[in-house]
């Protein structure tokens, strides 16, 4: 009993991130879309996002960067949300790439965030219309 209590006290209490965000409607004829999250970490430890999943599509964490005047996207293996920190995804920067998506404005999209510590968290994202002329990237 004493040993169990000791082990228990050394394990950090699971602390959930505060996550909000939205996904973009799929452009007719395309199967690619993107979602943007705001991840706020009020926990005492950094949290490392290692995988994002959603039913019926492939999700990857992407970063858009300008390299030598060219806009490029690269996939990130993980995304660290620092302790007491915020990570903001936004068009032209960090985003979730949704492949095989068929999303319509007004729907909700559940995404599951998986962390390096084995915890996972489900977040419901509103699907929003794409504003005219706001396409932020092409594949
Ligand atoms: Cu992308």
Keywords for this entry:
single chain; 139 residues; mainly beta; Immunoglobulin-like; ten-stranded mixed sheet; 1 helix; 6% helix; binds copper (II) ion
Q: What report would you give on this structure?
A:
With 139 residues, this protein is mainly β. The chain has a single domain (15-128), classed as PCu(A)C copper chaperone (Immunoglobulin-like), CATH 2.60.40.1890. Helices cover 6% and strands 49% of the residues. It has 1 helix and 10 strands; from the N terminus they run H-E-E-E-E-E-E-E-E-E-E. It has one helix spanning 2-10; strands at 18-24, 32-40, 47-53, 58-67, 70-75, 79-81, 86-88, 94-99, 108-115, 120-128. Strands 1, 2, 3, 4, 5, 6, 7, 8, 9 and 10 form a 10-stranded mixed β-sheet that branches. Strand 9 (108-115) and strand 10 (120-128) form a beta hairpin. The termini are far apart. The mean pLDDT is 88. Copper (II) ion binds at residues 62, 73, 95, 97. Pfam families: PCuAC (PF04314). InterPro entries: LpqE-like, Lxx211020-like, PCuAC_sf. This is Copper chaperone PCu(A)C. It comes from Biformimicrobium ophioploci.
């Amino acid at each position: 009993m004493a040993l169990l209590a000791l082990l228990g006290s050394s394990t950090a209490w699971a602390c959930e991130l505060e996550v909000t965000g939205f996904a973009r409607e799929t452009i007719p004829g395309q199967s690619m879309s993107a979602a943007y999250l705001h991840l706020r970490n009020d926990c005492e430890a950094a949290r490392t996002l290692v995988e994002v999943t959603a039913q019926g599509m492939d999700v990857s964490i992407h970063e858009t960067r300008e390299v030598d005047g060219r806009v490029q996207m690269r996939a990130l293996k993980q995304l660290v949300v620092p302790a007491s920190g915020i990570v903001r995804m936004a068009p032209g920067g960090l985003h979730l790439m949704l492949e095989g998506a068929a999303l319509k404005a007004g729907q909700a999209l559940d995404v599951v965030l998986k962390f390096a510590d084995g915890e996972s968290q489900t977040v419901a994202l509103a699907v929003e219309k794409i504003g005219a002329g706001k396409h932020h990237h092409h594949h």
